[in-house]
Amino acid sequence: MKNMHIRYAALLLFVLLSASTSSFAQTVLEQKISAISAIKEIRPLETSEFSEKYVTYFTQPLDHRHPEKGSFRQRVIVSHAGFDRPTVIVTEGYGAAYALRPQYREELSKLLNANMIFVEYRYFLESTPEPKDWQYLTAENSADDLHAITTAFKSIYPGKWIATGISKGGQTTLLYRTFYPDDVVISVPYVAPLCYGVEDGRHEPFLHKVSTPENRKKIEDFQLEALKRKATLLPRFEKYCTEKNYSFRAPIEEIYDYSVLEYSFALWQWGTPISSIPATTASDDEIFSHLLAISEPGYFTADSPNASFFVQAARELGYYGYDVQPFKQYLSIQSSEGYLHRLMLPEELKDMPFDKTLSKKITKFLKKQDPKMIFIYGQNDPWTAAGVTWLKNKKNIHVFIQPNGSHLARINTLPEAEKAKVMELINEWLK
């Protein structure tokens, strides 16, 4: 009996010591994150860029105006540089999986040695509510998500905050500043469009003027050649889509036509060298391979992983159209109008109207206010057609356009003098 008591006491001591060690092993940052009531889960991540890195799950209302409607978990990645450092909140427009990589560090966070709060957008990857009720996927709710996260993490990082994002993430940076102008000191949207409609109307004229007449002709000649060879290339195209298990809401010939129409936008968007375009005398293999490399038909699938983006584009973020005129005699479609609704929206939303309230609100904010903002665009990127490049005579809003740049335009891709100017502005604002 005596031995049993000794063993019990030893076991109790071991349990207490283990609990104490476990508690002690938790870093100060972990303890602070765990104290945020909305965070129910926190896991450490490997990092080669920061002293600590965690993935957390932040409980958000589906509808911030009506919390009783339910909630979902939003994935937020926390990367630590120091409690005394500024903090960059990355307003991602899509999923956050790539930010889990040990070597990932956003540009401004690196340039400023800043903490990084990386927010996955609602309705993408692990931040998707179940069931997926589309009515709560709004820009305003996404701004409210960011406000809740920023407010919570300011208890940990009381220094100055910068919001930044790329493409749809840049749109998010812009709309976040519009809804909550005082949450951050600086906003840096990269390649962020501000579209006024589902088929905005500014992208097609842009593509008729971009670069040089010689380059534009080479692109159009390739598109025409791909359409002229439809009889031989369409069977290959159909076989490729079947092997990929793609399903479409339109006949395969229409999808082929849309892939050709998308080609010029996609080529300029990603800065593909014009020299890579095959000659019109190239083999079927070369023409087909190049078309798929630039304009992959999976983009038009009925169950695209980008469905949440398409819903927002159709609802309030806007999108672009195609100019079918140069290709009309070879197309199976009379018009491309309404293609986003017809091909890419969930069936139950195909009649959803576009609401201009958001673009009007953002435009009014930018005209009337003068927040500290730096816009970065690429000169040849078709999204720049809808960019915030029209603002003049503002003290704090600055627009930088990378010469011959694409959708990959960043601070580090700007000419040295402009890059220095950007950093000078940011460092001055952070003082």
UniProtKB/TrEMBL annotation:
Gene3D superfamilies: alpha/beta hydrolase. It comes from the Bacteria. Keywords: Hydrolase, Protease, Signal. It holds the Pfam family Peptidase_S37. The keyword Hydrolase applies. Residues 1-25 form the signal peptide. One of its GO terms (molecular function) is dipeptidyl-peptidase activity. The keyword Iron does not apply. GO terms for biological process: proteolysis. This is PS-10 peptidase S37. It comes from Bacteroides cellulosilyticus CL02T12C19.
